[in-house]
Inverse folding.
């Protein structure tokens, strides 16, 4: 092991992580605010009963909500039980993990504005495409 | 964005969030305190992930030189980069934002945006959570969605690469 190289790697990583800390803690605080102020009942009321529109609503909700994917499964399961279409719930599940409006400022600061915005827009569109493809293939097989 | 500007922007963002908390506290103190508690719980839960990310950052910076990086995950790596993005994205744990510092380090090496986008997309596929997902949505749904997501991650990586990286001019 090259001690000099390890010291350099430690220093670079330490500085990089230290610079990211205020952004990461800021994102966590925003997630806390969101979870505290938005209820599950309020979310279910937003769906219209039209699969295509609901998939856009599902993807939008998944994009603005954040947290452990387990929460999205529980919430998605609840929404299915309430009669929300599988396309909408799938779009919700996919966008929950691939799109991050709450962490967008952090992503833009650390990975670049153009990258963050482009990636999130495409992830949003792809969550609807993934939902449609999944439900379509399920119907065929 | 330069390092000092990035650091400043991070502090400004943090400051804005604190001001937001103070303002909302006056509107609804109970829910704001609850939000603070939720945030603290999240922070406690992901501290081990931060430690893991920090360790991986050290390993990355120690082992991966720009030359090696180009060999495996940059555009020059060819199809191999998608394989690494899929595997690393799937095995990585914790919230997406915890990985931004490490991806920032990788991005600095250049021409890796396609890899980063595909990596982030594959973070949706979590083997440890599959049993729970199967419980809620059934095995057929989970298998199809997982395959669809992996394929779409590469498509997205290619699109992001095209849009965000400058076109190479051959002379």
């Amino acid at each position: 092991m090259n001690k000099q190289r390890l010291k350099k790697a430690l220093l670079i990583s330490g500085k990089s992580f230290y610079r990211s800390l205020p952004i990461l803690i800021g994102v966590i605080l925003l997630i806390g605010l969101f979870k505290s102020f938005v209820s599950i009942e309020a979310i279910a009321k937003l769906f219209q009963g039209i699969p295509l529109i609901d998939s856009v609503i599902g993807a939008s909700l998944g994009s603005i909500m954040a947290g452990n994917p387990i929460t999205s499964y529980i919430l998605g399961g609840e929404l299915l039980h309430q009669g929300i279409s599988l396309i909408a719930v799938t779009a919700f599940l996919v966008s929950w993990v691939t799109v991050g409006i709450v962490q967008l400022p952090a992503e833009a600061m650390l990975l670049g504005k153009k990258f963050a915005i482009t990636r999130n827009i495409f992830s949003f569109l792809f969550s609807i495409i993934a939902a449609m493809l999944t439900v379509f293939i399920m119907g065929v097989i | 964005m330069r390092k000092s500007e990035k650091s400043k922007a991070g502090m400004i963002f943090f400051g804005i969030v604190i001001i937001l908390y103070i303002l909302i506290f006056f509107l609804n103190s109970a829910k704001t305190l609850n939000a603070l508690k939720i945030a603290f719980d999240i922070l406690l839960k992901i501290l081990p992930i931060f430690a893991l990310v920090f360790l991986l950052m050290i390993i990355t910076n120690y082992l991966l030189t720009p030359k090696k990086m180009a060999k495996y995950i940059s555009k020059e790596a060819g199809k191999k980069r998608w394989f690494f993005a899929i595997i690393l994205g799937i095995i990585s744990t914790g919230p997406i934002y915890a990985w931004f510092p490490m991806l920032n380090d990788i991005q600095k090496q250049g021409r890796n945006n396609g890899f980063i986008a595909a990596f982030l997309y594959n973070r949706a596929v979590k083997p440890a959570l599959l049993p729970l997902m199967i419980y809620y949505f059934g095995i057929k749904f989970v298998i199809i969605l997982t395959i669809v997501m992996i394929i779409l991650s590469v498509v997205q990586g290619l699109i992001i690469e095209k849009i965000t990286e400058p076109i190479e001019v051959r002379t």
User: Anything to note?
Assistant: The helical segments of chain A are 3-37, 40-44, 51-64, 69-81, 86-98, 104-111, 113-140. Chain A has a mean pLDDT of 87. Chain A touches chain B through 66 residues (CB under 8 Å). The CA atoms of residues 101 and 117 of chain A lie 10 Å apart.
